[in-house]
Amino acid sequence: MSKSKEIKFRLTEKELETANQLAEKYGMTVNALAKFMVLNLEAPATKTDREAIKKMNTKIGRIGNNINQIARQVNTSSYFRMDEKEQVIKSLLEIRNDTRNLVGKEEISEEEFRKEGQAVMRSSRNLFSWK
What we know:
This protein starts with 12 loop residues before the first helix and ends with a helix. It contains 5 helices and no strands. It is mainly alpha-helical. The relative contact order is 0.07.
């Protein structure tokens, strides 16, 4: 493991004030801001933006959970013909992958989606035995 190196630079009072304001705006220290700016060459998301993204990711995760629950109900239901079930599952997979794309995640295959649904069904049977 290599030793970390120290970089020093001087700022005028006005530059330091600007640096402090930027650091406060982005919810980080001046050192962290300087390091981020040097390594990424772009402004970081503001704290408000990061919080909004976190909330959006949570909501999208809930949508994915709802999709899994719908898929489970469709698979266990006797109200649908097999071809109808297949069509619903494919539509749910498409919606699931659209939500994954929104948060920058890789799409999942139909096989993975079905395995995920089977795992949920097994765990729910263990949680809710109606004996």
